[in-house]
Design goal:
heterodimer; A: 488 residues; alpha/beta; Amidase signature (AS) enzymes; 3 domains; disordered N terminus; B: mainly alpha
Amino acid sequence: MPTGTNTSESYVEKPKTLAAFRDEISAGRSKAADLANGYYERIAKKNSRLNVYLSLTKERALAQAARVDDLVKKGDPLPALAGIPMGIKDVLVMQGAPSTAGSKILEGYRPPYDCTAVARLEAAGAVLLGKLNCDEFAMGSSNENSAYGPVRNPVDTERVPGGSSGGSAAAVASNLAVATLGSDTGGSIRQPASFCGVVGVLPTYGRVSRYGLIAFASSLDRIGPFAANVRDAATLLGVIAGHDPKDATSSPAPVEDYAAASDQPAAGLRIGVPAEYFAEGLDAEVRAAIEKGIAALEAAGCAIKPVSLPHTKYAVPTYYLVATAEASANLARFDGVRYGYRSPRSATLSDMYSHSRDEGFGAEVKRRILLGTYALSTGYYDAYYLKAQQVRRILAEEFLRAFAEVDAIVTPTSPFPAFKIGEKTGDPLAMYLADIYTVTASLAGICGVTVPCGTTKAGLPVGMQILARHLGESTAFRVARAVEAAGI
Amino acid sequence: MKEKCSKVTVADVERVAELAHLELAPEEIEPMLRDLNAILDYVAELNQLDTSGIEPLAQVGELENAAIPQPRADVVAPSLQRAAVMAQAPETDNAFFKVPKVIER
């Protein structure tokens, strides 16, 4: 063993708030271009260890920063995110920029269009620094399935940042971006946010357009923000949310002022605590931290009520059938014909399909495509896929009943804190069980926020998941703000 | 009591791989078989639930009170420019995607 090398150093640094940046930029104390260059310098120093960014979009970022600095010079009104340096998960496409989704099969791909959420950030003045590492096609709970190497957790670089949006969470935790976008299909925003000690938002299904998100499981996929504090996460959701005709499932409901809502006290809200999320398998230190968070909500004037979600234990098997079935269909498009990788060993069309997919996809993606194809195949469709869809309805309706009694439901985001790199890679099923507290909300389409809620004795962050009914984001932010204010 | 589910065999893995246009190297088959059987054993827990008479839920827009819309009408509208799309193709004559021959002679 080499000595004298500190292998578990901390890279944690908290970014300033959006309001602080806004003051600096509007008063002329900081230039957007200098801010962006400062972040690129930090990335140059720290990215080699953390592996957060897969590519940088420097030309586009600096052009945007120059536009913001022009507005300031002219004294024009500044949009909500003027000059804010942000990073984008690599499953969200940016015109002309690499968009690999963490996969070799999309190496070299330059999308001909922008993701709607990305376009909305830029329209609001954000400076997009680059594309962030993630599990291949967002399939994973540790970021170890990226074809471009794992991301390291800034809190302890021997540990995973969570997944699949590991780069998005780690970038905010290490201040290599002020805020980021990620995607969440079964917990891919919430779990890494909790592992890295930052705020992550799962918007209601349909609240944020999926246009330009490289699809994993279309009935579950959501795009959402990561930030260092609740109010900033709320501001970011307000920017990216809203109807988009390019996504057939986009909601026309008006977008609320989530940041203002998050300023409202949580007093008087009814908070449900489901016993099923505090059962066997929950780490004792995580439980203790979440119980402190619940006590803080009670002290803030919330009414704490037990709620029952008895079918919770069926959520992981249901999720993995639904998600893999949809993935097997979505990933059929990667065939070497229209874009992405084509195997040079392609004598016939059929060879081209199978060689390109074999060489382009990693092991976990193949495993999920095979599982999904199996669940949809003749003779098994009713037993697996149809059954899972029926249980999905039971799980969703169970949440809707609970929300007749309470305004929000609080749970741990993950049963355990960040685990060591390599600890679970040999056992796919153990990795799937890491999603036990997040997949049910995904299946039900409801919204949620994960907020830091204390640490373990070893200093690993614990996250509290706050779930609210469809389009109930304002309530979730109010509760999250109260937990944050308690400073657990 | 867990209902017994059918065990996946090597032939099943090969059949499903063919359906999905995936190739598996011989050394990949055994681990894949083990993982798929472990996962399918686990998902067989769903058989404990009686779901007769329950409508499948494919998409949360189908839920009552979900406040999410039914999908929009399917209407033809302008799309991406052909030149921008073809620029990403592995092989193209700028009008069509080119692929290896389909029919053996």
